Amino acid sequence: MDVLVSLAVNGLATGMLIFLLAAGLTLIFGLMDVLNFAHGGLFIWGAYTGVWAYHMTDSFLLGIGTAIVIGLALGLVTERLIVRPVYGSHVQQILITLGFMLVLQECIKVVFGPDQKVVSPPSYLEGSFVVGDIVFINYRLFIIVIGLVIFFAFYYLFKKTRVGLIVRAGVMNKEMIQSLGINIKLVFMLVFMVGAALAALSGMLHAAYSGVIYAEMGLEFSILAFIVVVIGGMGNFKGSLFAALLVGLTQAFMAYYVPALSLATNMLLMAIVLVFRPQGLFALR
Amino acid sequence: MSDFLELRHMKANIEQYHILHDITFRVPKGEVTVLLGRNGAGKTTTLRSIMGLNPVVGGSLTFKGESIRNLKPHQIANKGIGYVPEDQGIFYDLTVGENMRVAMKKENGETKARMEWILDLFPDLKKFWNKPGGQLSGGQKQMLAISRAYVNDNELLLIDEPSKGLAPIVVEKVMESIHQMKEQTTIVLVEQNFMMASGIGDRFYIIDDGQTVQSGQMNELKQDGVLLQKYLGIS
């Protein structure tokens, strides 16, 4: 029983990290119809710059803040310089964003060096506590809480505020939203920046979760995020949370019981969804 | 009366295709101007071009004396032009209330008063306030689309085929609403249903093959059997 609960907590924490990465991706995908393969690059830049600030100042919160600011800035640069010229062409988007992903990845090695970096959570988030026979690791619970806070914050934003309604309406009908006097390009840019900031935050939180960061982890992690977007449905925040938790839990349990099939199971899950519900489980339409 | 909207020799494309060759018309303030013509003549493209949704490649386009030719759709809308597209443009996953809220540029007393006026005009919208727009009937969607354009203090409404696909009783209701809006705003109406258009319009322009070919007062057109037969197929 204790193993099952530990695996579940582990899976939920991994799922939340994937959710943070996938949430930005699904917004960018759903609202802007942009296949952003550079998303993993924003993830690693968030991880490296956040960890750098954390180590320099010994403040984990400052590390998180730095990752978010770098994510916003890189999101702005990516949208204006890389994505904007290729709106409307998926093939060009895949090529240019994948290329930019590799550039971001190699730049990490140039700026921070090619070696892996070891990271540990701050002292106040380290350690664990026991309930019955079950051990709960503090940092994993912290990630779950952060993921839930962000989910509910965005859920409120999308459901209750006019800004959120505009984003949702923009996903459904871009022409009409412009005809109502709303600058959809500005909305696109802000959504892209927020999506990038979520990816960077996810990278920073993942750094202290996995204990080690390396330049290639962005691409590896973004594959899971794409699986989540496909399963959850493009542009759907709730779908992303559900799918991310499903993928995280599957990953955790399979890694424990049948490690060799860990990624394959998630791929299979995605394939089943694509066959029976290609628009995703929670797709808007 | 002063010309509110003026198009002079406007040319517009849809992708690489040259659709509008020479559209010229004037819309006086406070009137309902009806664009008539057969299917595919270019009426919808004309409205879309005014809104900046199709690129205007030639001619001039002015609103209240100011060129709007090179403006973006949101800039044109913010000049005070409301648009009701042919497909109604309902945000299907948003409720009726949310559709209205997205459209409202301000939430002040004046806008709220307009909203109340709309809900009195279309009680169905109040009844289905929390229902997703995609689940409304065709007539209710049209009412919502018109309401969304009218809720702001727009000085000009562009309404594209409001009677399309609606039952006659619903058409009557929609037309009655446009009649009432006519008292407060200027309207450009695209309409295939001549009976309906002639009951509401003050002046008309006939568009044929991407060009304006005839114009005049609506009362004159009603009497002109030759013109009706030639361009609208009405005998």
Please give a structural write-up:
The complex is a heterodimer of chains A (285) and B (235). With 285 residues, chain A is mainly α. In chain A, 76% of the residues lie in helices and 4% in strands. Chain A is built from eleven helices and four strands; from the N terminus they run H-H-H-H-E-E-E-H-H-H-H-E-H-H-H. The radius of gyration of chain A is 18 Å and the shape is globular. The model of chain A has no long low-confidence stretch (mean pLDDT 90). The model of chain B has no long low-confidence stretch (mean pLDDT 91). Chain B has a domain at 92-154. Chain B has helices at 43-50, 73-77, 96-103, 109-121, 123-127, 138-150, 168-182, 194-200, 218-223, 225-232; strands at 3-14, 17-28, 32-36, 56-63, 66-67, 81-84, 156-160, 186-190, 203-208, 211-217. In chain B, the strands form two sheets. Chain B has a six-stranded mixed β-sheet with strand order 6-7-8-3-9-10, sandwiched between helices. In chain B, strands 2-1-4-5 form a four-stranded antiparallel β-sheet, with helices on one face. Chain B is built from ten helices and ten strands. With 235 residues, chain B is an alpha/beta fold. The A-B interface holds A 162, 165-166, 168-169, 172-173, 175-184, 284-285 and B 51-53, 72-74, 77-78, 83, 85, 89-94, 98-99, 101-103, 105, 134, 148, 152. Chain A: It is found in: Cell membrane.
Count of individual domains of chain A: 1
- Average pLDDT reading of chain B: 91
Helix content of chain B: 25-40%
Number of helices of chain A: 11
CATH class of chain A: Mainly Alpha
| Largest interface (C-beta under 8 Å) | A-B, 19 and 25 residues
State the separation between the terminal residues of chain B, measured CA to CA: 33 Å
Structural class label of chain B: alpha/beta
Secondary-structure element order of chain A, N to C: HHHHEEEHHHHEHHH
Number of helices of chain B: 10
Distance between the termini of chain A: 40 Å
The rounded Rg of chain B comes to: 17 Å
Strand numbers in spatial order across the main sheet of chain B: 6-7-8-3-9-10
Task: Tell me the structural class of chain A.
Answer: mainly alpha
Major sheet attributes of chain B: 6 strands, mixed
Mean pLDDT of chain A: 90
Order of helices and strands of chain B: EEEHEEHEHHHHEHEHEEHH
Q: What is the count of β-strands of chain A?
A: 4
Give start-end ranges of low-pLDDT stretches of chain A.
Answer: none
What is the helical fraction of chain A, as a range of percent? over 70%
